[in-house]
Design goal:
mainly alpha; two-stranded antiparallel sheet; 14 helices; 4 strands; transmembrane helix; iron; metal-binding; transmembrane
Length: about 280
Amino acid sequence: MPVFEVALNLVTVWPLTTISAVFSLYVILLYTYRLTLHPLAKYPGPPLAAMSLWYEFYYDFFLRGQYLFRIRDMHAKYGHIVRITPDELHVNDPSFLPELMPSGGRPRDKCDGAQHELHRTRRAAMSKMFSKESVRRLDPVMRRNLDQLLVRLGEFQDDGRELSLLPMFGAFTNDVISEYAYGFSMNWLQAPQFNQVFFDMIMTVHLLMNPKVLTKLRAELNSALPDVSAPLSINKIEQLPYLSAVILESFRLALNTSQRQTRIAREVMTYNDGKRK
């Protein structure tokens, strides 16, 4: 009896059993390939992570986003380079960052399948919105919202009410961004208690915890802006080096996205951990 007829009879007589057997065989062969013949098979890491994406899914879904910390533990056990998914390596070495995300003529494709050239075209369409010239055009918008904020601060002062900086900063940021992005302000500065909007206060907190830094920043601001009632100029603020340094440091200390920024290299990369030449 031909093999095709035998297979057809099996599917007809025992359809569920046959399908289950074929699927099981496929999974076994797939996992065996990923552990032995896959191009990343030589790199260390948990076998379950190399076999299937279900390993990452378990930590992120059932353990609620704990895979990030599991990766940290992998590096402690396996070293600077670990295999964290069937098709992905994770590098824990800041000195290797220029190789992972280089500038110049070495493109890196994105994990969503977008090639470097396509991503560059998409980014160019939006880059003008975030240029310095575009931000400078926001000067009237920022001044108008700042005036509204000062009025609200005066109300809190007159009433003797406590003021939470968290919603206040959030309302100011939201009104500026909404007017720039959508063409109208959401007017959270006018809402009671500033609408309790979340805003990251990392810079304010660290300044209060570091009096020397706060004193130096105040000295620079007092020197550059002696009249607090005078209108602020973005061009003038950009010329304050210590203020710029404080803002950049707050970005570094702030909690950013924990999502991995996967890159696909088109050329072979060589990693030197200082032990090999």
